[in-house]
Amino acid sequence: MDNKYRRTQTTVSLINYHFIFCPRYRRKIFLIPHVEERFKELVKEICKDMEIEIITIKCDKDHTHLFLNCLPTLSPSDIMQKIKGITSKKLREEFSQLEKMPSLWTRSYFVSTARSVSSETIKMYVEKQKTRY
What we know:
By secondary structure, the chain is α+β, with helices and mostly antiparallel strands. It has helices spanning about 35-50, 75-95, 120-125, and strands at about 5, 10-15, 15-20, 55-60, 65-70, 110-115. Helix 1 (about 35-50) packs across helix 2. The protein starts with 5 loop residues before the first strand and ends in a 6-residue tail after the last helix.
């Protein structure tokens, strides 16, 4: 993967964020049939609307990794607020096992930029998450 610079009328940027977040109480929601696929579809729709490029998305049974390329107008908190808010609402509406939860995600998350570690290294790390056990 080449590091791809994003250009607008006034900016040139390369901002890649690695996010990790979990469901409340570390519930293993991604083991419920079709939740992972629907979650990924929703994230793709949200990112398209926000002009975010998805480098990779991976889900383990009780957490998810997102590696995203963003414009400089978006803060990590704006991105998480939108992704967590929409996916929580829609997944709880669509899956009866999740509908009793007052909210799907914890308020916390991990975010990192691709500083001294290359974007390719982070991408490989995220993609290998399910195969490490």
